[in-house]
Amino acid sequence: MKTRSRLAAAVLLALLPALAMPSVALACTTVIVGRNVSADGSRIISRNVDSHGLSPFREVSFPAQQRESDWTYTDAYNGFTCTLPASSYQFVATPHFVQTGDGDEYEAAINERHVCISATETIHANEAALAADPVVKNGIAESNIPTIVIPYVSSAREGVERLGALVEQYGSAEGSGVVFADDTETWYIEIYCGHQWAAVRIPDDSYAVIANDGLIGTVDVNDTENVIVSDGLVSCAKESGFYKERNGQIDTTATYCRAKCDFSQIRVWGGHHVFSGSQTGDYDVSQTYSMLMTPDEKISLEDVMEFMRYRYEGTKYDANEHPEVRPVGVASTSQSHVLWLRDGKPQILWECLSNPEMGVYVPSYGNVTQYPDAYTKSTTQADDTTAFWRFRRLATIALQGRDTYGKKVRDAWKQLEQEYVAGVDAMDARYEAAGESGDEAAAIFDELSGKALAQADDMYASAFEEFADDVATDKSATTSREAYASLSGNGLPVAAICVAVAAGVAVAVLVGRWAIGRRRRPKGE
Asked: Hey, how many other C-beta atoms are within 10 angstroms of the C-beta on 212?
C-alpha cells in the first residue's frame, strides 16, 4: 500500500509543474450579463484568472482605514508609486498570495458602498498605438488597479473616472480591461496603451464575452451618459496617423487594438455559440465579433458558471479531443469569480479557488469581516492547510482522467453548487435578520466553505486511492501523459515531461501530508 501510494504521489506531483507552463499566462476570459437578459433579473460578472495553475489565491477582508494624512503607495511588482487618500472604505477581495516581487493582485473586490471590480482582462494594443503612446514600465498594472481604486470610490462610474484619471496622470504598464459595477450600473473600461482608454456603460439588454482583445468598437465620445474616454483618445490616433472611424465615430477596436488571433477569438465565438447559437455561424478568426450580444434565451447564474468551464464540448473544436485549441476552461486557471448583483438584495461573490472545471464556486457577501484561516493564508509550497492547495490537489488528480476521476468530481461539485443556489433565499433571510452584519456574513461563509473543503478532502482521498491503483497496474500510463500535455493547453515534448517528472520527484516529500498517513480534518474548517 505504501509503495503504491508513494509511486502515485510522485507521479501526481510530477504533473503539478505542467500547471505552471506560461502558454496561457495573463490570459483571462470575462463574461458580463445585463439584468434584462438574465434569468432572474440580476447582473452577472465573471472572470477566469488564467495566470498559471500554481499561483495561489486567497479571500481577505480589509477594514476601513482612517489615517492621519494621505499616504504613499508603492507596488512591489513594478515600483509604481502614487499618493492615496487617508480615508478608505472596507472591502473584500481575492488577492494573490503575496511574496517578494509580487503586487497585490486583488483580481475581484466589493467595497462597503457596493462597488464591485473585476480586474483585469489582459488586452493588447497594436504597434502604431504603442509607438505613439508607449506603456510606462512602472505605471498602473493589474497588480495595483483594485488597490488604488476600489477602497476610494462610491459608484461604478466614479471607479471608471478615478482609474482613467490615474492612467492619464501616471501612465499604464500594460493593456487592460476592467469591469466596475454598483447597485445600478455596470461599466467596462479598456486601457489600450500608455495613457489612452475608453469606457462604456453595459446596457441591460446585452451580454458580453471578452477574451484578451479589445472589443468596445465604435463609440460616440459626445454621449457622456454612456461613454467616457481619455482626453487624447481621438487626437493621439489622428495626429499619429492610425485613426480609424466608422459612421463618423472612432472605432476603438480598429484604431487601438491588435489583429485578432485564434487564441482569443475562439473563446468569444464559444460564448456566442453557447448563448446566441441561432445568431452564430461557424468559427471564423478573421471576423471581428461584437462585444455586445443578445442571447437566444435568458442566462442564469448557473449558465455562467458552466461557461467558465467550457471546452467546446459537442463541437468540432472540442479541446478534450484537440489540445491545440484554446478553450475557456483551462487547467491553468488559478481562480475564478462570479459577482452576482441582484436588485434590492445583497451582492454575492462566488469564488472558486483553483480551476473551475474541477472546482466549486462558494458564495459570500461583500462585507465579511473575517474569512476562515484556510482561505486567508497561503503559501507557494503545496500543503494541506490552505484552501487553495486542497482544491488544487483535487483538481490536479481529477484532470488525469476527465471521464473517470474528473467526472465524479464535476458531478459532485455541480450538486453542491445547486445546493448553494437553492439555499440562497434562506441564506439571505438569515443575513438580513442579523442586520446584514459582517460577522454574520463571516459565519455563513465559514459554514459553506467548511463543507466544500471537507468534501474536497474526502474526494481527494477517494480519487487518490483509485489513481494509485491505476498507476500500480499501469492502467493510466498513456492517459496520464495525454492529461499532462493538456494541462498547459499544448502538446509537450518528452524532454519537458522528463523535467516535470524530475521536479515532481524532488518535491515528492510534500505528498506525505497529502496522502500517506492522511488524517481526516474536522468538518467546518
From this structure: 27
* Cβ atoms of residues 364 and 349 within 8 Å: yes
CA distance readout (Å), 435 to 370, 405, 441, 494? 17, 43, 10, 59
Q: Which three cell numbers stand for residue 321?
A: 479531443
Please, are residues 215 and 268 in contact by the beta-carbon 8 Å criterion?
Answer: yes
Q: Which amino acid is at 525?
A: E
Inform me whether the pLDDT recorded for 98 exceeds 90. no
Among 42, 33, 226, 250, smallest CA distance to 129 is for 250
The 3-state secondary structure of 78-110 reads CCCEEEECCEECCEEECCECCCCCCCCCCCEEE
Please tell me the distance from the alpha carbon of residue 110 to that of residue 327, in angstroms, as a whole number: 28
DSSP string, 392-456: HHHHHHHTT-TTTHHHHHHHHHHHHHHHHHHTHHHHHHHHHHTTS-HHHHHHHHHHHHHHHHHHH
Our measurement of the distance from residue 434's CA atom to the centroid of its chain's CA atoms, rounded to an integer in Å, reads: 31
Lowest mean pLDDT, pick from 93-97, 313-317, 324-328, 478-482: 478-482
Query: Would residue 83 be called left, alpha or beta, if left means φ above 0 and alpha means ψ between -120 and 50 degrees?
Result: beta
Give 289-320 pLDDT, tens digit per residue. 999 999 999 999 999 999 999 999 999 999 99
CB burial class (10 A; 0-12, 13-18, 19+) of residue 376?
middle
Dihedral of alpha carbons 147, 153, 157, 158, sign: negative
Q: Which residues are catalytic, by number?
A: 28
| Contact call for residues 228 and 161 (beta carbons, < 8 A) | yes
Predicted model pTM: 0.89
What would the 3-class secondary structure string for 343-386 be? CCCCCEEEEEECCHHHCCCEEEECCCCCCCHHHHCCCCCCCCCC
Residue 515 has pLDDT above 90, yes or no: no
DSSP H/E element including 13? helix 2-15
User: Which whole-number Å values give the CA distances from 402 to 47, 305, 354, 483, in the listed order?
Assistant: 23, 18, 16, 9
Break the chain down into helix, strand, coil percent, rounded to 5.
Answer: 40, 20, 45
Give Cα 422 distance to the centre of its chain. 24
